[in-house]
Amino acid sequence: MAGLPKLPGFNFVDPTTSKYHLSHTFNYCNGYRIPKIGMPGIGGQELDINSVAYIQSQDPVRYDPSLTYGRTRSVAPPQFIPHYALYDQKCLTFKAFFKQSVTESPLEYYRVRKVNIIYFLEDDTITVMEPRIENSGLDQGRLIRRARIPKTEMSDYWHWKDFAIGKDITFYGIVFHTIDCDLFTREFMRSQGLFIGEPEEMPPDPYTQERHASVQAHVTLTPSADDKLRRFLEYDGKVLKFDAIWDTRDEEFGELRPYQILYFLADDTIAVKEVHERNSGRDPFPLLLKKTKLPKIWTDRPVTYPACYMELSDAEVTEYYQPKDFLIGETIFILGRRMLLVDCDKFTQDYFRKALCIEQKPPIEYKPKPKPVPPKPMPPHDGIGTLEDSLQNTLTFLPKPPRKDVIRQLLNANKYLRYVMKFDVVHPEDEIRKFILRYSLADGCCYIYEPPIRNSGIWGGKYLQNSLIIKPGSDPLNPSYYTPADFYIGAVIVVHEQRFIIIDADLYVYRYMQANSEKFPCEVIENMRNYMYNKGYLTDDVENELEKEKETQKKAQRDAIGRELEITKTEMQRCMESLKAGGEDTEYSTRKKREILQQYEDTLKHKYVVPEHGILPVNLECAYPVKIGKLPDLECREEDIADASFTPKHVDTPEEIQQKYYAEVLRKHHDVCEHGKPIVCDKPDLLTRVPPEEKVTTIPEPIMVSGVEHPKSACRVKAVRFAEGDERCMRDRYDLCNLKHEKIPCNCVQYEKK
């Protein structure tokens, strides 16, 4: 059991063991602790001395350091790369030359031939290449094939360590002198610790220099070939167009005849077309000259040339017309005819500007100015249908209906303005007739209807169907029609020579004027507003305005109460602040005096609202008009103002006198015109009736009103003076407060100056 390992399942308990004490480990000898050798275990049992825990450090046989520090790792040997794989496709290139002697030529003794020496590192082979030179006459290319070249007779071969710049190298009896190398060769030699030297110059070849000197550069002018295919592909369809005239006015029955000259850039040919005009009396020949090359001088040909049956060729013509010969304002000859160039098209102008750097002149005007076409008179309207329909018959052969304003019809559909009219009385029996005018806002047509009156003997009903009413005196071919701006109370409307007077209108008319005030004059809106107010139709509007005014006043009162609550002051302080008592701010005191005086004068004025120019006529049909005489000068003069002016309460100002006077005149006028007795007309006798043109109309005499007279004492209210002393000034202010107290309560209190 003693030899069993200390593992789970291998431990057994000895039942015979009765001692469990643990023996000591050290013994003391001369005061020092010395470990016991072969110390027993628990209960005096011997320990396992063969265990690793009891191995002595001096035992070199059983001690293994790898158990403590681990096994040592050996360095891996480097990977082996063969020589041919390491230097595969790596070459050293040297530039060199050798001199070749020439014995059979008197012009040269030797030649300098350039070569490239290539050394292959993978197998230490060498090859020599000579670059090919054009027209050298030598067999150039590979001079020495690739192989290991022996250096000596002792079986030594050339190695890359034997190469350097500026060194003579002998291959098979030929001496090569190196002068340079490439960059890879230089870097490789430097990496191996070898310095190969600086590059050298290539010596010149005497024969090559002599050949270069003997050869001279010959400059020749080779005429450019006229490539017709290229010109066709580039200029096909591109034509220069010119407008020209043939002037034959120096001959009998001569004239200016227009032509069009076409220059074809593809083959330099020219064609001349006739420009046909309507009713010219000439046959419509298409071309004056067909497409052909045109010589400049067509008579310049040999005398012996058979021109009667042979055409001119390029050999007989010295010069043809070219594009540069066609300039605006120049004269060219088309087979003896003088043609003046007057204009060209846009493509021709661009071609001359870009290709020839020539700017064409502006076109030449040669045609006489056409006479102005007289306007076509419009036929007068025959009365059948509307004017717009009749005008359509004169514009096109197949007349079309006139265009309608669809937007206006959609926005104003079923919207009408209605007015009440009466005849401008000529016959007494027509006085009772009333008419209703309905204006359509959709198309501007008017419809007139007469309400029937019982036992009148007059048939009522439709008086005028929907149609546009023309204003009198307008142009029949461009008439102006009646619009809502022409309809107001008292307006005279002429319908087919019949005069009507508008006497009434719907409230919707006034509402429409309010909503579209920009379409109506101010006088028309004011006229309709006065009429509606007199009729009592605007009562609701007045009440609404009064309610708004009351709300505004209440709000102002609430704001005033709020301001008083914010700053609480005594009556004495408010009066002192209003009068600025103390005499420090004289400017404020003067301004306050004027304000109080103006408030007092305003309380004395009457509330009559009368315009300055007199009385407005309320009843337009009053037989007794009122005319106001010349107004007197109401300005107060210096002599009317006394030195000691005062402010009496019982004296009226000039404005008050004038207002009272006009108010009395207005009352009398109202009594006469509004509440007077109606005029009763007797039924005239048919036999003794006077014709209308012989009737004598009597104009009633107007009531003349004289000017306003006012006493001179009334001017005293204009001047109020204050004494300079403090006591008088304070009393006057106090008096002014009392004066104001009669009309408006004042917050001033009695005070005395201390």
TrEMBL record:
Pfam family, one: DM10_dom
Listed GO CC annotations: axoneme; mitotic spindle
Location(s) in or outside the cell: Cytoplasm, Cytoskeleton, Cilium axoneme
Alphabetically ordered keywords of this record: Cell projection, Cytoplasm, Cytoskeleton, Repeat
GO molecular function, one term: alpha-tubulin binding
Coiled-coil blocks: none
DM10 domain segment(s): 88-193, 236-356, 413-517
GO BP terms, alphabetized: cilium-dependent cell motility; mitotic cytokinesis; mitotic spindle organization
Name of the protein described by the UniProt record: DM10 domain-containing protein
Classification via InterPro entries: DM10_dom, EFHC1/EFHC2/EFHB
